[in-house]
Design brief:
mainly alpha, single chain
Length: 116
């Protein structure tokens, strides 16, 4: 009986042991902006008009046409990159600015998203 238990322990420990053959979980890739962030300078006029609360519709076409076709996460990453690099040329509240720009372009800030 002792031999049986010893062999069982040996086989179970070998079966569950994992040396170099075990797959390691790959980290999730960080989302990247698929467009040149410098092109997002055209969003400065849109954001400036939104922040000054001008009456009427701000010209959103140049800015929104750049991020249309991107999923919300990609668009958020691109705009965060532009805002953090101060490409837009103004000091901004990042979460507010990001939300305003995405909303005017009919996109949403992904749930729980924070600028990287």
């Amino acid at each position: 009986m002792a031999l049986f238990l010893a062999l069982n322990l040996l086989f179970f420990s070998l079966a569950s042991a994992c040396n170099s053959g075990c797959p390691t979980p790959k980290p999730k890739p960080k989302p990247k902006c698929p467009i040149d962030a410098l092109k997002l300078g055209v969003c400065a006029d849109v954001l400036g008009n939104l922040l000054k609360l001008k009456v009427g519709n701000p010209p959103v076409q140049p800015c929104c046409s750049l991020i249309n076709g991107l999923v919300d996460l990609e668009a958020a990453v691109c705009l965060c990159t532009a805002i953090k690099a101060n490409i837009l040329g103004i000091n901004l509240n990042i979460p507010l600015s990001l939300s305003l720009l995405l909303n005017v372009c009919k996109q949403k800030v992904p749930s729980g998203f924070q600028c990287p």
